[in-house]
Structure formats: C-alpha cells, structure tokens
Give the backbone structure.
Amino acid sequence: MSLRINHNIAAVNAHRNLVQNDSRLSKTLEHLSSGNKINRASDGPASLVISEQMRAQVAGLTQAVMNSENAVSMVQTAEANLNEVSNLLVSMRQLAIHAANEGANDQPMLEADQSELINSLDSIDRISKSAQYGRKTLLDGSHAINGKASGPDLEFLGASLKTQSAPQSGYAVTIDQEATQAQVVGSALFTQEIIDAGESLTIQQGGKSFQMSTKLGETQEEIQNRLNNGFKDNGMALDTFFDQGKLTILSHEYGSEQGFSVTSSTSGILSANGDTPMWVQNGRDVIGKIGGEVSVGKGQELTGAAGTNVEGLKVRFTGVADPMKPEVGRVALESNAFVFQVGGNRNQIVKVSIPDVNSTQLGKDISNESGYRSLRDLDLRSSQGAQDALLLIDQSIDQITTTRAEMGAVQKNTLESNLTSLSVAKENLINAESVLRDTDMASEMSELTRNQIMTQSATAMLAQANQTPNNVLSLLKA
C-alpha cells in the first residue's frame, strides 16, 4: 500500500460523485417543485419541440372554441331578427287575404288594411337597419354577396360562399351557344279541310295532358286560342301558334331537360305518324365560360363549376350568341360575408352570408299584373293588387325562410358540431402534452429518495477520503 499527499485521488473521486449526485438531487427537486419534467431545452430537446407545438395548438383550440361560441351568438341574434321579419310577413299575408275579399270590403276597410301594411313594411325596414351584433349591422346587406352584371342580355342571379371576389374589371362572360326552347313544327299544312274533318290533338307535359278536336268551320286563330287556354288551365308551360299554316308548339322553359309529347290524328300536323305519340326534347342549354373558367349551363343559366374561382356564381343569358363576339358582358362581384375562424390553424374558417331584408329587396323580379317591383310597392286597395300582393309576400316568406334555414344549418351542423370536435381535440392534445412535459410525481419521489441517500453517502465518503492523508503523520511520529 502506498500513501500520497500531493493528490488525494479518493477525495477527488468522492467529490466528483458528490457533485453529480447533488446535481441530480437539484433536478429532482426542480421537477417536483415545478410539476414539469421539462423546464429547459436541455431536459429534453425533442420533447420540448413537440410539447411547445402542442401548447400552441391547445392555445389555438381554446380560442377557436370561444370564437365558435361567439359565432353561434351572432347567428342566433340574426336569426331572431329574421323571425320577427317572418312574423310581419305572415301578418301582411293575412291582410292581403282580407283585402282580396272584395265582395265584403268597403273603401275604409281597404284603407285600414293598406295603412297597416305600410306600418309592417316600415317595421321590416327598421329591423333591417337596426339589427346589430356589437357594432356590426346584420340584415342591411352589408354582409352579403353582392353582384351586378353589365351587358344587355346578361343578368346576375347569385353566388355562393365559395365564389371568389371578382377582379376590378369583373369576370368576363363568354357565350358559345345560347339556350333554346323545345319546340315542334308541323311538317304538313293545317288546312281547312283537315280542320273540318275533326283533327284530334293530344299534348302531354310533366304528367299533365290536354286533348282537343277541331270543329267544322273553325279557324286557325280559334284553334290557337283553344290550345293556349287549355295549356293555361291545365298548368302546362307551353305556347302554340301558326307559322305559314303550320302548327307550332313551343315550351316556355329553356334547356335540354324540358320536353313534351304530341300526338295528332293526321301525320305531320304535329306527330310524324298519325295517332302515334312523339316525344319532343330538342331544347339546348347555354354553353359558355365565366372569367375564363369552366361553367355548367342549364337552360339560360350559366353556373361556375366546382373547384374554380367562380364556383357557384350564376348568371342568366337571354340573348343570341355571336361567334364573332363571344364576350357578352362582365360580372362585378364582392363577397362581404361574415368570416369566422373556427379552428386552431390557418384557413380553418366558416363564412356566413346574410342578405338585405329591406322591403325594397324582398319580392323582387316576380311577374305580376300590377307591376309591383318589390314589397314596398304593394297596394291592397284593389282586388288585383291584393291578389298580386300574395305572390310577392309568399316569395318573400320563402326568401326569409330559406335564409333562416341556411343559418340554422350553419349553426347546428358547423358551429355547434365544431364546438364538440374542438373540445375533444383540445382534451386529447392536453393529455398528449401532459405525457411529454408533466412530472410523474410517484417516480420522481422515488428518484428524490435515491438521490438524497446517494448525496449523503457521497458526503460521508468524501469526509473519509479527506482523513486518509492523516495516516502519514503516524509514520513521522515513529
């Protein structure tokens, strides 16, 4: 055995172990006191990266839950105001029904109905201007999809929430083929001889049918009137006329889906073969593009295809296509729909569009004999006016009901279901982040006990190692 006094290796070794044990004890105490097993990057670099990303996601989901709740509140506020508008429209409809009872009404009663109608219209306008969520107005059209078509034969019909706002110059509309109506033109002259013989005609459309036979001495004009009246009485969207002595039947509707059946007892008057039905479906759909994007034609309506910038944008072309000048106009479009961030990541949004419910914007573009352009024009003081008022009021009720249904669907199927999925996702992320970052207290307490014992043991051994050089003094005393 050798004794050295310049270097006490045993003490150095004991000191090194004491320092390590003390460091472990400090970390264990830090883990127990903070509740986290990752307090700095050195505690677990990879785990730190993953857990910080999860923390960001949890914070985003927490805010998304609050966003969704706010969105539900806003939608409910708008829907409650629309319900009041709907109630007013129902009351107006009752007034129109009363005013249409011409046999029992006198002028003062009609004036009272008209006065109450105007009051209801003023209430609708007040709601459209005053309905708010915070400082945002809801029903004045400022958060709708607004568009306008330029072109003599072009009409803007609507757009979807997926339609992108148009550039400053608008979307160019090009037409390669205009829509046409299904029609049949007799190949044989409808002579007086055939008329006097009692020609039998049968026309069917959409499950409805009209049959007639000509009479002795009847004129072509009388036959035309009988046919058109029969079509009208049976609810058939058809017209008939004579062109150079040949009978023609024309569908009101445009497009390839429209059709009807004709039968004539004489070959060529309508059907190619006598007493044999002939199906007529030779109408064409409009063909063209919106903004240079693929579009789908149906009748006179052209709609932007799915997946394009103009998806859901719908226009109507009523003119004739010119191969030398395919561009028929442009559509300016601006989408101001409400945008809600309902997810924890980029572009996880929901859009809600609420149209203008002002009385001048409800019941528009409805054909009527009184010339009413919107609800604001209604006048119940005449029988015809009351009848036409019912047309516009029913259309307005449909508009409001459709809007309410769309908002209800967004609330139920998007926002409220999203709240549930967000809560589940948040719970799972918190659990995953906890596994990575939180201290396992039972395991850490066991580690604390071990480190305390090891530190005490290392301290005692260091003291023993420091006593070893004293053995040299015994040699000097000898």
Notes: The domain at 181-280 is CATH 2.60.40 (Immunoglobulin-like). Helices lie at 9-34, 45-99, 107-130, 192-196, 220-233, 383-437, 441-467, 471-477. The longest strand covers residues 246-254. The CA atoms of residues 69 and 409 lie 15 Å apart.
